[in-house]
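Protein modeling request. Please complete all fields; requests missing the sequence field cannot be processed.
Requester role: graduate student
Desired output: 3D structure, token encoding
Chains: 1
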Amino acid sequence: MTAYPSLMNLIFHPYELQLKHTFTISRESHNTQPSLVVELQADGISGYGEATSNPYYNITIENMRLQLEKIKPKLLEMPVSAPEQFWQTFEPHLKDNYFALCALDMAYNDWYARKKQQKLFELWKLNTANNPLTNYTIGIDSIEKMIAKLREKPWPIYKIKLGTKNDLDIIHALRKETDAVFRVDANCGWTAAQTIENAKELKKLGVEFIEQPLRADDWEGAKEVYQHSVLPIIADESCIVEADIDKCLGFFHGVNVKLTKCGGLTPGKRMLEKARKLGMKTMVGCMTESSVGISAIAQLLPLLDYVDMDGALLLKEDIAKGVDIIHGQVFYSNIAGTGVTLF
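Delivered output (343 residues):
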């Protein structure tokens, strides 16, 4: 007999997340981050998901909300099913807005695991004993201000945003301040020649890898960099959806999966498992989410080599309680699902 939940209610919680510092990457700066938290409510249980707006992908809180409003009637007739089936049901309706699909899928995964009275990673039968540490991101600024941000937050691993005229000067200056591991993210700001040359100096300065140095569509340049860089190259903007994993093989050493871009935890988990089978390094990155989105990412940690889940740490005030992050290490909530409670 098919099990149906009581009326599955979809509730929207829009937020304007305030950042501690102006956050700058190679193509934009911002002081706030609009975010939409989606709550799925049924059988006395709430599940939570989140997606932030993103001008690069033409995503706004309003267009996410409008897309999700359209699928409300479909939720009423949806039986209790595994998250994979849930995602397959709603993907055709939200294929033009994977950020909205992400928030919905994340909320359902949370709801489903809570209904099963398990933490999501337990439901997936994942072992968290060897979880990687998360980095802390230093956005582009004057060298003095980047040093100040680093001093403000002592951390074992930093991701440094680059894509300026003095990128190597930045890393030289920051290296004088700490022995921490460095990762650099040029956010499509370099050429192939620059990347190959910069990698030589960055390796001497203790940089672990370079993330997305070239434009997302520069596959010829990516191949050249892949063959000649002395540092591993991780795809970000070049790896959006599941089909991109195969596409990145032989062009990147690893992939950074963003849940908002691929449509949620369900496809994100599949992408990571596929990349691992292909021998690629795996990473998940955040999009300056609150602890709602960050706690969802935490469920995937056993599948990752690297993780960038510092979004909630960059906020002046969080909007939820979920996982705790102390000096890079993630500590899970005792609550089932992703462990989130909205304030």
